[in-house]
Amino acid sequence: MTPGHGLLIAAPASGTGKTTVTLGLLRALSRRGTVRGAKSGPDYIDPRFHEAACGQPCVNLDAWAMQPDRIRKLAQGLGNDFLVVEGAMGLFDGAMPDGKGSAADVAEILGIPVVLVIDGSGMGQSAAAIAEGFARHRPSVTVAGVILNKVASPRHEVMLRRHFPDHLPVLGALPRRADLAHPSRHLGLVQASERPDLDQWLDDVADLVEAHVDLDALPSNAATRTKLHPARALPYARIAVAQDEAFAFAYPHMLEDWKTAGSTIHTFSPLKNEAVPACDFVFLPGGYPELHAERLASNSNFMNSLRNASQTADMYGECGGYMILGETLTDAEGTVHKMAGLLALQTSFAERKLHLGYRNLNAGDGPMAGHFKGHEFHYATTLKAQGAPLFHATDAEGTVLAPMGLRQGRVCGSFAHVIDRLDTPLN
C-alpha cells in the first residue's frame, strides 16, 4: 500500500454486496497497515461499520452536496493513509436529472481508480460484458479491476472469469456465503453498535477476502491535495449534541467543522436519561427514536432539561431529533408517546411513507439561518405541523417543495439532514 493512495469500490447496482466487500477489504488491509474508509453520498450507518473494520474515522464524500475542494480535504484526513471509498447505488447513479453526486463523480474528483463488484449470481460470460460497458462509459473514470461476488462454485468462477480482457483484471472471486449476510432495517443496515458479534463477523469477512482476493494487485492513485476548506462555523461557544443509538445520525465532518471554528462539543445520551449539558446550542441528530419512543417519553430528566434548555439556548433537531421536539410520536404499533412539546408537531409510524431525496435548503433567520445542501430519508407521517416554517426547499431538480420544518422561538427542526453549508445563496 502506497501512502496517500486510494480506490473506490463500486458496483453496477445496489444489492451486489459491495458493503460487505468493502468491510472485508478494510479489515484485511488494516492487518497490513493503516487504512481509512469513506462513504460516497449521504449515509450514517455504513461509516460506523467502516470505523469498526479498520479502527480509523470514516467520512462522507458527497459530490452533490459538497464542493470538490471540500471532498478532497475530507479525503486527505489527518495523514496519507490508504483510502477505500465505498460507492452508493450503481457507479454512475446520482440525483435527477443528470446523475450528479454519483460515486463516479467522487472517483473523478479524487483521481482514484474504481474496483467494480459484480454479483455473479445467475450469470456467466455476461459479467465481462457488464464490466467492459462500465469501463467505457465515462473516459474520465478509470475502472481498473473487478471483484466477482456470490460465486456459486469453482466451475462457476471459471465461467465468469473467461472473457475478461487484460485491461480489466479479475482481482478476486468471493464464494457465496449466506452465513455472512448482515441484517438490515428500513434505513439500511442494523447499526454497528447493535451487533455484539461485530468484531468476529468482520474478521470472518476479512478472512474470506484474504483467501479469495489478490490484495497486492489492488490499484491505487494518489488523491489530489488541496487547501483547507473554510470551516462551516456556528456562532456558539458550547454545543450539546445528543449521541446514542436513538440519535446516531450526526455527520462527523459537521461536528469537526464546529470544533475547528472554536466550539466545544459536549455529548449526552437521552436514552440514558442524561440532562442536556450547559450550552449555547443544542443539536438533536436523527436516528431511530421511534424504536425507543416509550423509553424516551419516560426519561423525565432528559425531557425536562430539554425544555429548560430551550429557554436559554438555541436548539435544532434533524429528522428523529425533530420528532422529539414535537408534541407526540406514534410508534409502529399505534401507541402515542408524549414528546417535549417544544414544536406544534405530531408524527407517526403507524402508517409509513417513504420520503427520500436531496434537498436545497434556505433559512432567512434564526439558529439555522443560511443556505444548505442536505437530504431527506425517513418513513414518518406528519399528522400535525403548525407554526412558522424553518426552510424553503427545492429538490435536486430545482422543483419547489413545500416549506420544511418548524421554528418556534429558539427551537427549530425539520426532516432534512444538513450535509453542508454554502457560502453563497442557492438559486
Walk me through this protein's architecture:
The protein is an alpha/beta fold. It folds into 2 domains: 5-222, Rossmann fold (3-Layer(aba) Sandwich), CATH 3.40.50; 238-421, 3-Layer(aba) Sandwich (Rossmann fold), CATH 3.40.50. Helices cover 25% and strands 28% of the residues. The protein has helices at residues 18-30, 46-54, 68-76, 103-110, 126-137, 154-161, 198-212, 252-260, 293-298, 300-309, 320-325, and strands spanning 5-10, 35-40, 59-61, 82-86, 114-119, 143-151, 170-175, 184-185, 188-189, 221-222, 238-242, 264-268, 281-284, 314-318, 328-330, 336-338, 344-348, 355-363, 370-378, 381-386, 392-395, 406-408, 411-414, 417-422. The strands form 5 sheets. Strands 1, 2, 3, 4, 5, 6, 7 and 10 form an 8-stranded mixed sheet that branches. A 6-stranded mixed sheet has the order 12-11-13-14-23-22. A 4-stranded mixed sheet has the order 16-15-17-20. α5 links the parallel β5 (114-119) and β6 (143-151). It is elongated. Mean pLDDT is 91; it is low at 222-231. InterPro entries: CbiA/CobB_synth, Class_I_gatase-like, CobQ/CobB/MinD/ParA_Nub-bd_dom, GATase_3, P-loop_NTPase. Pathway: Cofactor biosynthesis; adenosylcobalamin biosynthesis; cob(II)yrinate a,c-diamide from precorrin-2 (aerobic route): step 9/10. Belongs to the CobB/CobQ family. CobQ subfamily. Its EC number is 6.3.5.9. The record marks 417 as: Increases nucleophilicity of active site Cys.
